[in-house]
Amino acid sequence: MITIGETTLTLDDPLVLATLAGAAVLLLVLLLLVTAARAAGRSARAVAPLAAQMGQLGQRVQSLGDGQERLAGGLHHVSEAQAQSQTAMLQLMEKRLSEVQGQMNESLSGTARRTAQSLGDLQQRLQAIDKAQDNITKLSGDVLSLQDILSNKQTRGAFGEIQLNDIVTKALPSDSYTLQATLSNGRRADCLIHLPNPPGPIAIDSKFPLEAYEALRRATTERDLTEAARFLRASVKKHIRDISEKYILDGETAEGALMFLPSEAVYAELHANFPELVREGFAAKVWIVSPTTCMATLHTMRAILKDARMREQAGAIRRELGLLFADVDRLGTRVENLDRHFHQAAKDISDIKISADKAGRRAKRLDNFDFEELAPETAPTVVPLDQG
Questions:
Q1: Bridge partners of residue 257, in order along the sequence
Q2: How far apart, in whole angstroms, are the C-alpha atoms of residue 269 and residue 216?
Q3: Which end of the chain is more exposed for a tag (fewer CB within 10 A), N or C?
Q4: Closest by alpha carbon to 279, among 246, 240, 227?
Q5: Sign of CA dihedral 351, 357, 361, 367
Q6: Residue 90, CB-side half-sphere exposure with 13 Å CA sphere
Q7: For 370-384, what is each residue's pLDDT tens digit?
């Protein structure tokens, strides 16, 4: 039970309970309102800065929109400028590309011409190489044939004789030598040069110690070298002795003879490493010659033959000189006569000119006469001739 002043309220009373419940509800509502008002105040105070920030944010968004519009305009201008620049760049690139293409076409054309010319030159060179290859092949066959020839003594001797004949026929007149000449002892020299006395006819015989020389070239040991040198000395000494005994005859040939070596290598080997053989040949009056020195020796003989023939023909030359002097004397006389005739002809021409000048002057005087004044008025009387 609750006493309020003079009023006493019991809790069992439903009205009291309802009133208390209403009052409680009312109080609760008031409390909620107060709490809501306070929360609203606090929310208002809290929202005010947020609103300000929202306003500022709105302004910024507006500014951002304006900037975006300006940016869009700038981007549009930039896009247009970029498009124009790109167009100009494309045009320039097209122009440059066309120029480069033209240069490339011209360069390619020139390169094609040069390439074609180079190919033509290359083809010619290849043809020359093929021809040279054919010549080399032929030469290889000739070398093999030469080796076959030189491997046989008889054919090797024929080779030396042919080479000697070729040199002699080129160096001397055909009537100054005899090939394969037979001497009084029955020996046959490869060539006999008809030199006047002294020294008299001189014989040339071809020798080719090829086996000894090849053995010397192939020698690898000191023993082989000694054996090959002994073989070469023996071969050359035998050739010197044979030529001295067979082709040097008293009263028939000269006091010496020539041994022809158809190889410059063998000749050089003898003079370089076997000088005693050369001296032995000098002692036996057998002079060793190579193709080169043989040609020089034959040219010296040619000069001797020419001098001898000049001496033999000295009488004929003096006789011809006498006849030539007589011819010159007659020629002088005839020149004098011709000069006298020319002088007389010149005098006659001078007289003719004088007569021509006189005739010209007379004709000029006749041309100056006035024939019309001198002509008669009547025709002259013509007296007929008596026909009886």
A1: 286
A2: 10
A3: C
A4: 240
A5: positive
A6: 6
A7: 544 444 555 555 555
Enter the tokens of residue 245.
Answer: 């005994």
Q: Residue ranges per domain, the chain?
A: 155-314
- HEC string of 157-193 equals HHHHHHHHHHHHHHHCCHHHEEEEEECCCCCEEEEEE
Per-residue model confidence as pLDDT tens digits over 311-347: 777 777 778 888 888 888 888 888 888 888 888 888 8
CA distances from 291 to 134, 162, 268, 368 (A): 29, 12, 12, 97
Residue 328 is encoded by which pair of tokens?
């010159």
Out of 111-125, 151-165, 203-217, which region has the weakest mean confidence (pLDDT)?
151-165
SS3 205: strand
Helix (H) or strand (E) holding 289, with range, is strand 286-289
Could you give the CA distance from residue 122 to residue 129 in angstroms, rounded to a whole number? 10
Length of the chain: 388
Mean pLDDT of 92-109: 78
| Residue from 161, 159, 139 nearest 150 by CA | 159
DSSP string, 350-366: HHHHHHHHHHHHHHHHH
- The CA distance from 260 to 248, in Å, is 15
Tell me 206's DSSP state.
E
Full DSSP string of 109-169: HHHHHHHHHHHHHHHHHHHHHHHHHHHHHHHHHHHHHHHHHHTSHHHHHHHHHHHHHHHHH
Secondary structure (3-state) at 382: coil
Which residue pairs from 188-193 have beta carbons closer than 8 angstroms and sit at least 24 positions apart in sequence? 189/246, 189/247, 189/257, 190/160, 190/161, 190/164, 190/165, 190/260, 191/164, 191/165, 192/253, 193/168, 193/298, 193/301
Is the model's pLDDT at 144 over the cut of 50? no
Q: What DSSP assignment string belongs to 9-60?
A: E-TT-HHHHHHHHHHHHHHHHHHHHHHHHHHHHHHHHHHHHHHHHHHHHHHH
Q: Residue 155's pLDDT is what?
A: 54
Strand partners, 181: 189
> What SS3 class is residue 336?
helix
For residues 361, 364, 366, 367, the Cα torsion angle rounded to the nearest 10 degrees is 170
